[in-house]
Amino acid sequence: MSSSVLPDFYDLSALGWNDSLAAGLPAGTLPARVARVDRGAAEVLCAEGQLTAHYSARVRRAAATDPVDLPCVGDWAALRRLPEGRFELEALLPRRTAFVRGGVGRTSQGGLSGDSRGQVLAANVDVVFVAEPALHATDTADLGRIERLLALAWESGGHPVVLVTKADLIGDGLAFLMDEVASAAPGVDVHAVCSVTGEGVDLVRGYLEGSRTAVVLGASGAGKSTLVNALAGEAVMETQQVRAGDGRGRHTTVHRELIPLPGGGLVIDTPGIRRIGLYEMGEGVEAVFADIEELAEECRFADCGHDSEPGCAVVAAIEDGTLPERRLASWRKLQREAAWMASRTDARLRKELQSKWKVIHKEMRKPGRNRP
Ligand SMILES: Nc1nc2c(ncn2[C@@H]2O[C@H](COP(=O)(O)OP(=O)(O)OP(=O)(O)O)[C@@H](O)[C@H]2O)c(=O)[nH]1
Ligand SMILES: [Zn+2]
């Protein structure tokens, strides 16, 4: 599908390479960014171009013990040149952010395998675009879905941005809808985009400045591929129309899952990331509902259930109209889901990742950052 010619080499900084990553590179190795993984090997982009690097014995051993150590798209890796000229993926550099799917797998018998080991779907994602169409069939933007995807975005450690896509479909109702969406996304930038007219596309591009890496989360048909194509200025992704037109399955022609954009920045698109809304979320829920968490601190009872307790600040906010009732219901629903998932995913992994990212989140939630 892509008409772009593969370059013979990549400018490392255009792939997101920087000094702090360089400081962690083992001596005598070559930095490379993982663009796709296969069994036992990765397609990588590096100063030498695009090449295949097989995993070293050490990487294979580590991954056998803990699948989280398996290379994934977006990872930075250290390559070693073997005497015969091939490259081996010797080690992974520490990840700054990661989308982790908990170990809720299916056993061969069809039941849930409780092995509770995580799998990393994408690493080193700086910006997480949450795409929700202004109009989906006959429904306007689903605020609950935005909240759920925001929880996943916060949890990854990346910087979330909400994009109301297909803005052309809603006409005069847009301003009202944007206010509603903003109320579901405290502390997060919200923009309207239209891939048909190009409205908002430059704004989106701005988030990728400095060779940042993004993913676009959103339901099927949200306009993710169309947006990425608009950013790239060419068809790097198959859209639903194309797929419907030639009857081929999805992802048959898309090989690289890490896509460097001609205007700078990179986008990660994998089947796993496309389905991520179906996976779990944990403490990200707290970040999405920071407004309710804040109110809850004002409740008379520390264990207030925000139901019919006296002195409940949350119920008071609903009564005086400052907190939409829908938001409390959405918070409860996501909390229940998060608790269910947490009970069957790797607690150790979660803790480890969260303590790392708490610092980043704190930084991002500082006053002055577009709080409502
Ligand atoms: N009117 C309008 N239609 C759009 C816009 N963006 C995308 N579409 C259409 O919406 C449909 C779905 O777009 P895709 O980009 O394939 O959606 P997707 O999110 O990649 O969908 P999946 O691949 O199923 O996850 C296509 O028919 C697009 O032409 C837009 O800004 N305005
Ligand atoms: Zn309360």
From TrEMBL:
- EC main group: hydrolase
Required co-factors: Zn(2+)
Q: Name one GO molecular function term.
A: rRNA binding
Using the record's annotation, list all stretches that form the EngC GTPase domain: 123-274
UniProt entry tagged with the keyword Lyase: no
Compartments it resides in: Cytoplasm
For this entry, list what GO says about its biological process: ribosomal small subunit biogenesis
Residues noted as binding Zn(2+) in the record, renumbered to the chain: C299, C304, H306, C312
Q: Tell me which residues bind GTP.
A: T165, K166, A167, D168, G218, A219, S220, G221, A222, G223, K224, S225, T226
What's the Enzyme Commission number for this chain? 3.6.1.-
Keywords of this entry? Cytoplasm, GTP-binding, Hydrolase, Metal-binding, Nucleotide-binding, Ribosome biogenesis, RNA-binding, rRNA-binding, Zinc
**Domain CP-type G: where?**
115-276
Q: Is Repeat there in the keyword field?
A: no
Which InterPro entries does the protein's record reference? G_CP_dom, P-loop_NTPase, Ribosome_biogen_GTPase_RsgA, RsgA_GTPase_dom
Bound how, and how many: what does the cofactor note say? Answer: Binds 1 zinc ion per subunit.
Q: How does it assemble?
A: Monomer. Associates with 30S ribosomal subunit, binds 16S rRNA.
What job does the chain carry out? One of several proteins that assist in the late maturation steps of the functional core of the 30S ribosomal subunit. Helps release RbfA from mature subunits. May play a role in the assembly of ribosomal proteins into the subunit. Circularly permuted GTPase that catalyzes slow GTP hydrolysis, GTPase activity is stimulated by the 30S ribosomal subunit.
Q: Which HAMAP family does this chain map to?
A: GTPase_RsgA
Similarity comment: Belongs to the TRAFAC class YlqF/YawG GTPase family. RsgA subfamily.
The protein's name in its UniProt record:
Small ribosomal subunit biogenesis GTPase RsgA
Give the species: Planomonospora parontospora
Recall the taxonomic lineage recorded for the source organism: Bacteria, Bacillati, Actinomycetota, Actinomycetes, Streptosporangiales
Question: Its gene?
Answer: rsgA
